[in-house]
Amino acid sequence: MKKVSFAEFGGPDVLQLIDAEEPHAGSGQVRIAVRAAGVNPVDWRVREGQFLAAHPIELPTGVGLDASGVVDEVGEGVEGIEAGEHVFGEGSSTYAEFAVLSAWGRMPEGLTFEEAAGYPSVVETALRVIREVGVQPGQTLLASGASGGVGSAVLQIARDRGITVIGTAGSANQDYLRSLGALATTYGEGWVERVRRLGQVDAALDLAGSGVIRELVELTGDPQKVVSIADLDAPKLGVRFSGVAGSVPDALAEAAGLIARGKLHIPVEKSYTLAEAAAAHIDSQAGHTRGRRVMVV
C-alpha cells in the first residue's frame, strides 16, 4: 500500500510517499480502507519533533490521526460494527491507503468522506478546551485564531450552549466567523482594544499559537481563564496548555448529534492527494485556514 512517512525530523521535505506493509486491526481496533484523512497542526508539529520530550517517537513513522473510510477488518472484542460500514475516527498513520483506528463512529448521514475526515480530533479538542476553560452559558468566550478547524467547532458548539463568542482571524475570514455566529475582529495592531469594544471577555482560547497569551490574560484578568492548544510556552505565564485528548468516541457521538441538528458544519477548504502531503503541511503551517484541509486517498 501507499503511505506517507518520514525517517528524520525536519521540514515538509522529509515527508515521503512510500510502499509499506498493510497494518492490521488489533484487539479493540478496526481497519479501514482510507478515503480521506484530516490534516491537523499536530501532524506537522510531530514531524518537526516538537513533542519529543513528552512523547518519544521511533523513526521511521507514518503521519496523521484522523480519517474516514470503509471498515474492512474488525479486531478481537469489537462489537456493533461490521466490514463495509462507513466510519470516521482517530488512529495512527492515516495518510495511507489503509489505517487502523482506535476510536470511531458511524459517519453522519449526508457527509462526504472528505467532510467526515475533518471532524474527529477537531471536535474532541473543541469540546475539551471549552470544558477546561470553564466558560458557562451567558458568558463570553474569546477564540484567538478562530477560523481553522478547532475554531470553527468551538464557535458553533459554544453558541449552541448559549455562550457568546468573539473570534479573531484575518481580514479575509471575518464574514466566515460571522456566519458561525461570532462577533468578529481582525488580529494585528490594536486587536486587544477592538476585542474590548465587542464586550467583556470571561474566558479565552489560544488556538493558533501566535504569541498572544499575555494579551489573553490581560483581557480575562486571570491566567486560569485562558487555555492554549498551540503555545508550548503558555505554562510559563500560568496558562494551561491542553494537549491530552479526552474521549474521542464521546466526541464523535456529540459531533454526529450536532451535525444531525444542523448545529455543526466545518467546510473543507482544500483537498490534497497523498503525493501532495508536503504541500498540505506547508499550507497548514501558513495558517489562514477557513475550516479544514484533508488528504484524499
Please give a structural write-up.
The chain is of the alpha/beta class and 297 residues long. Helices cover 28% and strands 27% of the residues. The chain has helices at residues 41-48, 113-117, 120-133, 149-160, 174-179, 191-198, 213-220, 248-260, 277-286, and strands at residues 2-6, 16-19, 30-39, 61-62, 66-74, 86-92, 98-106, 140-144, 164-169, 183-186, 203-206, 226-228, 240-241, 268-273, 292-296. The mean pLDDT is 95. It is found in: Cytoplasm. Residues 10-295 form the Enoyl reductase (ER) domain. Keywords: Cytoplasm, NADP, RNA-binding.
Cα Rg = 19 Å
Distance between the termini: 11 Å
Question: Based on the structure, what is the oligomeric state of the protein chains?
Answer: single chain
Give me the strand/helix succession: EEEHEEEEHHEHEHEHEHEEHEHE
Provide the residue-averaged pLDDT.
95
Beta-strand percent range: 25-35%
User: Major sheet: size, sense and barrel closure?
Assistant: 6 strands, mixed
Helix fraction by DSSP (H/I, runs of at least 4): 25-40%
Structural class designation: alpha/beta
Number of DSSP-assigned strands? 15
Give the count of helical stretches. 9
Features:
297 residues, alpha/beta, 6-stranded mixed β-sheet, 6-stranded parallel β-sheet, 15 strands, 28% helix, globular, Zinc-ADH_QOR/CCCR, ADH-like_N, Quin_OxRdtase/zeta-crystal_CS, RNA-binding
Give a topology summary.
Layout: E1 2-6, E2 16-19, E3 30-39, H1 41-48, E4 61-62, E5 66-74, E6 86-92, E7 98-106, H2 113-117, H3 120-133, E8 140-144, H4 149-160, E9 164-169, H5 174-179, E10 183-186, H6 191-198, E11 203-206, H7 213-220, E12 226-228, E13 240-241, H8 248-260, E14 268-273, H9 277-286, E15 292-296
Parallel strand pairs: 8-9, 8-11, 9-10, 11-12, 12-13, 14-15
Antiparallel strand pairs: 1-2, 1-4, 3-5, 3-7, 3-15, 5-6, 6-7
Helix pairs in contact: 3-4, 3-8
Subunit structure: Homotetramer.
Pfam families: ADH_N, ADH_zinc_N_2
Keywords: Cytoplasm, NADP, RNA-binding
